Amino acid sequence: MNEFYDSLLEQERESVRDVALKYGRTLNPHYERLLSAKAASTSPYYVGLSTDMGSFTHVTKRVTLVADTMLLSDHGVGAVHQLGVHQQTSAFSLTREAIPNQIEIRTRRYGMVTRDLVELGQWLLDAEPLLRSGLVWYGPVFTEGSEGTSSTVSGSLNAPSGPLPSFSDRSIDFVVEHGRAVDLSRAKPLASRVVRPILEIDLPFIDGLSLSDFAQVTREEFDSYREYRDFMRSRLLELDDALEAVDSQVALERVALTIRDELNAATAAMSSAARSRALSRCGAVLGTTSAVLAAVRPEALHGALAAGATIAAGATGLWPTIQAFADIRPKRTRGKWHYIWVLQKKTAH
């Protein structure tokens, strides 16, 4: 993302709407490569999360606690904003001569879909330190119009590309293939043969800061963030074994205790930082978000998402849909688990 931010001129930063459009144009040629890199990532907490644009700040401040990298996108509901035109040129001959005498240019208008370009542009500026450091990036919903062609024979032109289509619900969710998720909801995961709650804890976060201040502080000061995330990576390996153990509840509790101990140390470090003079001047307050770490069988997670319940925009919610899917599936005794943080909306200070 450094390429995008380095290319922004001061006058361009004054229009947050133009910032959002330029981000879309800059990212479009690299989008498939970035998604491929995500698919190939071995990080256990590379999260793909779809949420309402109005929740971006709330989500960003909390998901950075449990995610190494977050791909954030809104639902693809809203107006289509044209970004430019893709062109493909080919030369051919209408005769048997080897030298081409006609050039055909195929064009497609392309754009991105979002409810609010202004809010998106402001978020991109406020979260700049997080995007530059690779902790967060925004995945636009791109769309293309119908193909048009223009052929040139001594300068003659044919039909131009068609207009961009109108656009509605096409929620993005890249969690399906990777098994990492963050579900921001009031519901707690269900205990069933496909869902195993592992532990319930309060995750600390720094509140009272603007998103831009939060992004700067997170990148520069919170070593405890990184230490806790690194610690959780190793615990995932232990969780797979614990879930399949003969006495799995005892094994899970052992892992949960070590997670709680490490979290207490991280919370103490963050509390000390929140009392520092620099953060106090910014109005920083140490808060907590109630969270449940749950394990879900892959077939239940994939089935629920395929049924139309995305991480943040499901009609009936993620957990009821997982349960409904599990009820009609044969029971499995062994297999890989996926891990989901359920972050509760209730926040205590």
Low-confidence stretches: 153-159, 308-315
Q: Could you tell me how far the N terminus lies from the C terminus, measured between alpha carbons in angstroms?
A: 34 Å
Q: Assign an overall shape.
A: globular
Q: How many beta strands in the DSSP annotation?
A: 11
Q: Please tally the helical runs, counting DSSP H or I stretches of 4 or more residues.
A: 13
**Assembly classification:** single chain
Computed Rg: 24 Å
Biggest pleated-sheet summary: 4 strands, antiparallel
Describe this structure in words.
This protein is of the alpha/beta class and 349 residues long. Helix content is 39%, strand content 26%. It is built from 13 helices and eleven strands. It has helices at residues 2-7, 10-13, 16-27, 31-40, 56-63, 117-126, 128-132, 211-220, 223-243, 248-274, 277-281, 298-306, 318-327; strands at 46-50, 69-73, 79-92, 102-114, 136-138, 141-144, 148-152, 180-184, 195-207, 285-296, 338-348. The strands form three sheets. Strands 3, 4, 6 and 7 form a four-stranded antiparallel β-sheet that branches. It has a four-stranded mixed β-sheet with strand order 8-11-10-9. β1 (46-50), α5 (56-63) and β2 form a beta-alpha-beta unit. α3 crosses α6 (117-126), α9 packs antiparallel against α10 (248-274) and α12 (298-306) packs across α13.
Please summarize what this structure is:
This protein has 349 residues and is an alpha/beta fold. It has helices spanning 2-7, 10-13, 16-27, 31-40, 56-63, 117-126, 128-132, 211-220, 223-243, 248-274, 277-281, 298-306, 318-327, and strands at 46-50, 69-73, 79-92, 102-114, 136-138, 141-144, 148-152, 180-184, 195-207, 285-296, 338-348. Strand 1 (46-50), helix 5 and strand 2 form a beta-alpha-beta unit.
